[in-house]
Amino acid sequence: MKLQIKNAVSSKSLDFDTFLSNSVAKVENNLITDKEIFDYTKLNIHRIKRILRTYQPSENIKTVIKKLNKDLIFLVITEDWCGDSAQNLPYIYKISSLSSKIDLRILERDSNLDIMDLYLTNNSRSIPKLVCFDKEFNELFQWGPRPIGAIELFKDLKAKGLEKHLIIEQLHHWYALNKGIDIENEFETLINKLL
Fold it and tell me: Best exposed site among 18, 69, 78, 150 by fewest CB in 10 Å?
């Protein structure tokens, strides 16, 4: 399994800037034929750019990340049409950018189902899914597909029988109000365990 993941990271993964540039190019050049996927991708590019423009990592997360004494690989399995990805990936990118010891790599789920199937959430190919490895590709932790607060909200709304579009609407409202606070807190905890 380690070799499979190492090969995927070295030959198929993208850095964040390339992932975002590819998404922009697909939209600008009308390379997405499915209208719904096109609309989601276009909206997600705006979400990502807004978060990148407005989010500043807290002093707490900066302090924790600066304590890192080993090299890490953050492998995020995702797709650019995924709303949860657009709401989380920019925070992950900014957090990982705080240290040269973190190498953020993005693997597109739909063309790498063999890797995705190693990291299912409740038997589902839920994304984004972050898997943290050391340099030897030993798994250190997993995160995703959402912060715990968003997971609980989703479960609660689903249990109440809300229609999917209403659940998604409330979930994105939660993200807008949370502004990355939960993801920072969760990453602080995960990174602290590695120190």
Answer: 69
State the Cα–Cα distance between residues 77 and 92, nearest whole angstrom: 12
Beta carbons within 10 angstroms of residue 125's beta carbon: 16
The predicted pLDDT at position 2 comes to 87
* Residue spans of beta strands (DSSP E) within the chain: 72-78, 102-108, 129-134, 139-143
Please count the other Cβ atoms lying within 10 Å of the Cβ belonging to residue 128. 22
Would you state the structure tokens that stand for residue 131, as one six-digit string?
Answer: 């898997």
The pLDDT value recorded for residue 1 is: 85
Selection from 130, 131, 168, 132 nearest residue 150 by Cα: 168
Strand partners, 102: 72
Distance of alpha carbon 13 from alpha carbon 19, whole angstroms = 9
How far is the C-alpha of 14 from the C-alpha of 27, rounded, in Å?
Answer: 18
